[in-house]
UniProtKB/TrEMBL annotation:
Protein name listed in UniProt: FYVE-type domain-containing protein
GO cellular component terms listed in the entry, alphabetical order: early endosome
Gene Ontology terms for molecular function: growth factor activity; GTPase activator activity; zinc ion binding
Every FYVE-type domain range: 703-761
A family per Pfam: Rab5-bind
Annotated PANTHER family: FYVE-TYPE DOMAIN-CONTAINING PROTEIN, RAB GTPASE-BINDING EFFECTOR PROTEIN
Species annotation: Cryptotermes secundus
Alphabetized InterPro entries for the sequence: Rabaptin, Rabaptin_CC, Rabaptin_Rab5-bd_dom, Znf_FYVE, Znf_FYVE-rel, Znf_FYVE_PHD, Znf_RING/FYVE/PHD
Superkingdom of origin organism: Eukaryota
Family: Belongs to the rabaptin family.
Keyword Metal-binding attached: yes
This protein's UniProt keywords: Coiled coil, Cytoplasm, Endocytosis, Endosome, Metal-binding, Phosphoprotein, Protein transport, Transport, Zinc, Zinc-finger
Subcellular compartments: Cytoplasm; Early endosome
Length: 777
């Protein structure tokens, strides 16, 4: 009874520790799910903000395109109007002054906008430098964690080599070191548990670092959508984040490969650990005889072996519960067979064992596991039971070794708890960083909203100015049309007046010619003419009258010519005066026009420079827009890659959850197997004690001494009669004596109990192979 209570108390401690670890693992999984939900919410909010910013960006881009088209159209109109308004220079000067004032205002506003954009660029550069320093510190931390895990992996490999060396030495000299193998196995198993917990926590830390990377990517994407001019410094940061993500992915894959190697190693080492546990019940003495421990020592060995098998079952996932029970129980059956053989030798006078040959066959029993035969051969016993009893009473070194290993396992458990606490603090720090990042993102959104409102106001002012400029241009067009129509009317009226003046001039020229005597003969012609005076007086008088009329006409013409000469002289003087005045006016006008032309040329040159400048600015803006579009496409590709990575990680998380569930189920099965194993060990221990006591008392039990069945522990009644086992002489009920054995020369059937049937029948399965035996008193 004391041994059973000690076994139960000893088994409760590992169960409690494993329950604490399972609860901590579940808590970490719940935290991971909570963080995944928060990440999903943040992504949805980011999607909404991105849609809004995209609409705003498209609206701004359309307005920019319309402004560029309108600017080009206005420049064309200005050129055309400058060529058409050369005739109306006064209006051109006024329009030039207006345009100069408008350009100065636009220039001043452009400088203000450039200054504000430069300030924003400076702030973004500072922010990127701070985030870069933070990411570098995170990379250093991950590298330290990687170095620590690599050192632990190196230690594990060295431990594996030592285990393989010890296994080789154990195969060569199995009798020399039978006690050290279970301790090494326990240390290896506990270290494997520690590596698993550290790898899971490392995976959690890597997932949290990945969340921070996704937040930074979202932040960079928002910056790129709002201000396309800030893409160039952010691309370097995104490249660094990509490298960091690839590095963490490689580390995760490497850790998963190491974990698979550890699991395979534990599966391969499962048979070795079972072999190392076998000397607990079937260790051969120096003379080839079986060493049977006492009740207290046996209980301690059972406790330590149950702890060892619990740890082993929690790691090896491919072992079968029945095979583990049979591997450990055949040793006890073999030792029981040896003790019975020794007792039968004492009873026989010639020193030979009367046990049948069927009972000796139990020493050759083996169990197949995973294609390999794991056997526990038992050496044949010799007499001298007192020597065996004294050897059994000696203190067990394995018990002290197991106790020291238990203390070390508890220390490792405390170290694991400390590591879990540190990882929880790391998670809290990452959560605080996440809250800080969300607050910073909200501040940036508020700033961008303010900038958006300012840009809206500026766009409204530009629209008003464009409307006023269009109105001014419309007025200039109307004025030009009016001036043009007036000039054309004046030209038509001047043309008509010119024709009328030309007709009057022709008429006056004819009269003048008549008055000047242009139609009369010239003096030379008169000198050359022949003098032919008429003979008659009448003809002479007529000729005289004719000459007299001609003389009067000549005098009239002379007087007219003198008058005309005088008037012409006056007119010439007036014209000279007018010409001198006009010359002076022309010179002054030429000077003023030259000055105006120079001013207009300087203004035109200035406007040409500003046009080239605006054109270069427009080209730069177009380049920035194209770069921003390419960057947006890159960000979309990165987003798709990040979504793929997230999907893969979610699949890995689901796989790990299913694996944790299967491991939990296997752990429950192993706990049930361990409980059955404890019951079996207790039952076998009682059977061993009874066989040892068989040499000191009669084996046959009387009916009046026994009140309950020795197998099921149920009381007897009229319906349940008492039956004797024909081999051991103990009393059972009829249901517990269900086996029959044929013996003797006539092969008579005899009712035997389960234990005797297992001992007598060679090819039958052990009585505890189907269900665990009843717990003994």
């Amino acid at each position: 009874m004391e041994t059973s209570s000690e076994v139960e108390n000893f088994n409760r401690k590992p169960d409690g520790e494993e329950g604490d670890l399972n609860s901590e693992v579940q808590g970490l999984l719940r935290r991971i799910e909570k963080l995944e939900d928060e990440k999903q919410q943040i992504r949805e909010e980011f999607g909404h903000q991105r849609a809004k910013m995209k609409e705003l960006y498209l609206q701004k881009e359309e307005e920019l395109k319309r402004g560029a088209v309108e600017q080009s159209r206005l420049l064309a109109d200005v050129k055309r109007l400058s060529s058409e308004l050369d005739e109306a220079k006064s209006q051109l000067v006024v329009a030039g002054f207006r345009m100069e004032s408008d350009l100065q205002d636009e220039k001043r506003k452009c400088h203000e906008e450039i200054a504000s954009l430069q300030q924003i660029v400076q702030e973004t550069v500072e922010e990127s430098s701070s985030s870069r320093s933070k990411y570098e510190s995170e990379v250093k931390q991950l590298r330290k964690a990687y170095e620590r895990l690599e050192s632990e992996n190196h230690e594990l490999r060295s431990l594996l080599q030592q285990q393989q060396q010890q296994q080789g030495t154990a195969d060569k000299g199995e009798k020399e070191t039978p006690i050290l193998a279970p301790g090494i196995m326990l240390s290896a198993v506990t270290k494997t548990l520690a590596r698993k917990v550290v790898s899971q926590l490392g995976a959690d830390a890597s997932s949290s670092s990945q969340d921070s990377l996704e937040d930074s990517m979202r932040k960079a994407q928002e910056d790129a959508e709002v201000l396309r001019s800030l893409v160039i410094p952010l691309e370097e940061e995104i490249q660094a984040l990509k490298e960091k993500l690839r590095y963490t992915d490689q580390q995760l894959r490497k850790y998963e490969g190491d974990k698979d190697e550890i699991i395979k190693w534990t599966e391969e080492e499962g048979d070795v650990s079972v072999k190392e546990m076998l000397p607990v019940g079937a260790q051969n003495g120096p003379n080839g005889e079986v060493v049977s421990p006492t009740r207290d020592a046996g209980s301690k060995v059972i406790q330590t072996s149950s702890l060892d098998s619990e740890v082993h079952q929690s790691q090896v996932t491919t072992s079968s519960p029945k095979v583990n029970v049979m591997n450990t129980s055949f040793t006890s059956i073999s030792s029981l067979n040896e003790l019975q053989a020794c007792s039968m030798k004492k009873q026989s006078p010639d020193g030979h064992s009367p046990v049948p040959e069927d009972s000796k066959s139990l020493t050759d029993v083996t169990v197949e596991k995973d294609g390999e035969n794991v056997g526990s051969p038992v050496s044949q016993g010799h007499p001298s039971g007192n020597i065996r009893w004294q050897q059994a009473m000696t203190p067990c070194d394995m018990c002290s070794n197991y106790e020291a290993q238990l203390v070390r396992a508890q220390q490792r458990g405390r170290e694991l708890e400390k590591q879990i606490a540190t990882h929880e603090r790391t998670i809290e720090r990452y959560r605080e960083d996440l809250t800080k990042e969300s607050g910073f993102r909200k501040d940036m959104e508020e700033k961008w909203n303010e900038k958006k409102e300012e840009h809206k106001m500026q766009v409204a002012e530009l629209k008003k100015k464009m409307e006023t400029a269009e109105e001014t241009l419309q007025e200039l067009r109307q004025t030009y049309m009016q001036v043009y129509s007036e000039v054309m009317n004046q030209l038509t009226s001047l043309t008509q007046q010119r024709e009328q003046v030309q007709e009057q001039l022709n008429k006056l020229q004819k009269e003048n010619d008549n008055l000047l005597g242009k139609h009369s003969a010239h003096s030379q012609q008169l000198q050359n003419e022949m003098i032919d005076w008429p003979d008659k007086v009448e003809d002479l008088q007529v000729l005289l009258l004719k000459f007299y009329e001609e003389l009067i006409a000549a005098k009239v013409a002379k007087e007219t010519m003198e008058e005309q000469e005088q008037t012409l002289r006056c007119e010439i003087q007036l014209i000279r005066d007018q010409m001198s005045g006009e010359h002076e006016e022309r010179v002054s006008m030429e000077d003023s026009l030259t000055q105006e032309l120079n001013n207009i040329k300087t203004q035109l040159h200035k406007y040409e420079k500003e046009r080239h400048k605006y054109k270069a600015t427009h080209e730069e803006l177009e380049k920035l827009v194209k770069n921003s579009q390419r960057t947006a496409m890159d960000f979309e590709a990165q987003l798709t890659d990040a979504l793929k990575v997230k999907k893969q990680l979610e699949e890995q998380v689901a796989e790990l959850k299913s694996r944790v569930g299967s491991l939990q189920q296997e752990l429950d099965n192993s706990e049930a197997v361990q409980k059955d194993f404890v019951r079996l060990s207790q039952s076998l221990q009682v059977q061993l004690e009874r066989i040892r006591e068989a040499d000191t008392q009669v084996r046959w039990q009387h009916d009046e001494d026994i009140e309950e069945c020795q197998g099921c522990r149920n009381g007897f009644s009229f319906t349940r009669s008492k039956q004797h086992c024909r081999h051991c002489g103990r009393i059972f009920c009829i249901s517990c004596l269900s086996h029959t054995v044929h013996s003797g020369p006539n092969q008579r059937p005899s009712k035997v109990c389960d234990v005797c049937h297992t001992l007598l029948v060679r090819d039958t399965a052990p009585y505890f192979s189907t269900e665990p035996p009843h717990t003994p008193d």
